[in-house]
DNA sequence: CTTTTGGCGCAACTCGATTGCAAAGATTAT
DNA sequence: ATAATCTTTGCAATCGAGTTGCGCCAAAAG
C-alpha cells in the first residue's frame, strides 16, 4: 500500500492539508464518494476547496469520476497503475436502495465492437440494482 | 412501424396534442434528445409541459432516459417490445465532439457476473469517443 | 526582504431539473 | 345538458449540483 504522500508525489500533485485529508477519506471508503459526502465529513472545509481538490486529483489521475445516475458525480481513487484509459475500464454498481456506488474492479469489461469509424475514448458503465446489504 | 396513436394506446398513455408531437419528434431523430433539444423544436410549448410529458413517457416505458455525462438527461424511444429490463439493455455512444448520443441497439451487452447477492435491475452503459462523423 | 505563485474561503452565479398553483380541457356521473 | 371530477397545461418560482470571481494568506523563488 502506498502512502498518501507517495501517491501525490507520483501523480505530481502538491501536498496540502486539505488534499491529504480528502485523499485519506477517499481511500478509507469502499464506495465512491460525492462532493456532498466529503463535505459532510470535512465540515470545516469549504465546498469549493474540496471541489477544486477533486478536480485537481482528477486531472492528475489520482481519482476518477463516475456518473451513476444519482445526479451527483461520484469519485473513487484510481487503482495503482490506472491511467483512466479504456483498458482501465471497470463496471460500477449503483445501489437503488442505499444509493452507494461501488467499483467492480474484478469484473472484466468486454471488448466492444463499435460501428465503423467510431472511436472509443472513455466509457462509463453503471449497473444498477440492489447491493448485497440491501438485497434481503 | 407502429403509428404514434398505437404506441400510446399500447403503453396506456392518453393521447394529447403535445404528447403526439413530442413522440413524433423523438421518433424522427436517430439520436437521443435532451429536454432542451425538444424545447428548441417546440418553441411554443412550455418547458414544464414537455418535461412532464417525458416523465409520463418514461414511467410508461414509451421512452428511456440516458445519462451520457453531458449533464443533460437524454431520451430515446424504446424499441418495440422493450420493457426497460436488463435484457433490453443496450450501449449508448456519446460523441465527445458533436455531443450527440446514439443507441447502439446492434451490439449485445455481455452478461455481467455480479458479486454474490448483488442484483441487477437496470444499467446505464455509455461509451464515449468520436462518432463516425467526427472521427476524421 | 520583496516578488511571485499556488491554495483557500466566501459569496455569488449558472443551468438543468422539478414543483406549486391556477386555468383550461376532457371525462364521467347525475 | 349540466354539474362534478380528473387530467393536462402554462407560468413562475424553487432546488440543488456544479462552478467561478475575487481577495487573502502562506510558501517558494528571486
From TrEMBL, chains A, B:
Keywords, ordered alphabetically: DNA-binding, Metal-binding, Repressor, Transcription, Transcription regulation, Zinc
Keyword set includes Transcription: yes
Entry keyword Secreted: no
Cofactor note text: Binds 1 zinc ion per subunit.
One GO BP: negative regulation of DNA-templated transcription
Cross-referenced Pfam families: FUR
Residues making up the signal peptide according to the UniProt record: none
Required cofactor(s): Zn(2+)
Name used for this protein in its record: Fur family transcriptional regulator
